[in-house]
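Input (structure):
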């Protein structure tokens, strides 16, 4: 039997402000039989498109219609003059910058400051809204990349913003909506959903090892030996580069992996086993300590608004 290989058909969505996104339908075939169809999406990050976005003389530009796809493909590393607010309706979005990965579960958004090189990809079925922002007068908006909680009111503002014309009337009702969005963004609670990525090559190797084998119960000393450093050196490097102990950093990684798997439909029991916990209850205890809520409740609270919104349509 011949090996499976993909045929990819690209479809470009357009609106009055140009290309907004591209999607691909990949048909995996083995011989003559079609095995699977998997719609993907990747954001258009060509330099000409990003330049176009940056040149639009408005404080807010809606770059995407709502995307409802099984996966958001990893974008090339890129940057733009305007900041970006990427709001997750469903699924989990990951924003990777030089020294960290930011996790964006449902009903949260990631704030990406202007000119910051980054790449974006999704986990599970993804539905998202992307806004580019360059507010006048420099309001009190975040200076660094962060994940923020989106309230019900803020969510409806973002949905409304996604419908704004490209060159909306700054002094009219649309302009006032944009001003309220900036006010809400300035006071939105920040969630600690960041996995720091160390710059040291040995620690990067350790990161890869931990991701590849999250259930490995090796001691700190054993992990240190695998990257040819002492336990003391490992703890010192982690403190200097990620500001966390090995234990907390590993638990943060488990939260990141858990959110990805749970949003893709895995059960708490399955995720707990995959991450090496003796029972689901011990995993839930860890998650609650790190995030403040058990995983089922955490995700349920974020899925309710999306389900409610779909029911209103």
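Output (sequence):
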């Amino acid at each position: 039997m011949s090996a499976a290989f993909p045929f990819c058909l690209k479809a470009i969505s357009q609106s009055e402000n140009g290309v907004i996104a591209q999607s691909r339908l990949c048909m995996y075939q083995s011989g003559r039989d079609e095995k699977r169809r998997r719609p993907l999406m990747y954001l258009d990050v060509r330099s000409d498109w990003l330049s176009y976005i940056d040149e639009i003389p408005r404080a807010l530009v809606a770059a995407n219609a709502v995307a409802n796809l099984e996966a958001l493909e990893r974008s090339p590393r890129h940057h733009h003059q305007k900041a970006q607010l990427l709001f997750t309706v469903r699924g989990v979005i990951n924003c990777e910058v030089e020294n960290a990965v930011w996790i964006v579960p449902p009903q949260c958004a990631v704030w990406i400051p202007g000119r910051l090189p980054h790449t974006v990809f999704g986990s599970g079925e993804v539905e998202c809204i992307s806004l580019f922002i360059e507010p006048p007068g420099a309001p009190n908006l975040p200076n660094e990349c962060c994940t923020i909680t989106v309230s019900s009111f803020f969510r409806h503002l973002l949905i409304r913003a996604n419908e704004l014309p490209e060159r909306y009337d700054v002094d009219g009702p649309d302009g006032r909506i944009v001003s309220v969005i900036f006010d809400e963004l300035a006071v939105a609670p920040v969630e600690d959903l960041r996995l720091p990525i160390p710059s040291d090559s040995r620690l990067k190797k350790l990161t890869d090892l931990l991701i590849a084998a999250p259930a490995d119960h090796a001691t700190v000393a054993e992990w240190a030996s695998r990257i040819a450093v002492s336990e003391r050196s490992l703890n010192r490097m982690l403190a200097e580069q990620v500001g966390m102990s090995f234990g907390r950093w590993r638990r943060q990684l488990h939260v990141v992996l858990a959110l990805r798997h749970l949003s893709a439909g895995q059960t708490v029991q399955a995720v707990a086993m995959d991450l090496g916990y003796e029972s689901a209850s011990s995993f839930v205890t860890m998650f609650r300590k790190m995030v403040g809520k058990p995983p089922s409740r955490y995700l349920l609270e974020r899925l309710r608004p999306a389900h409610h919104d779909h029911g209103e349509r």
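Notes: The chain has ten helices and 13 strands. The mean pLDDT is 78.
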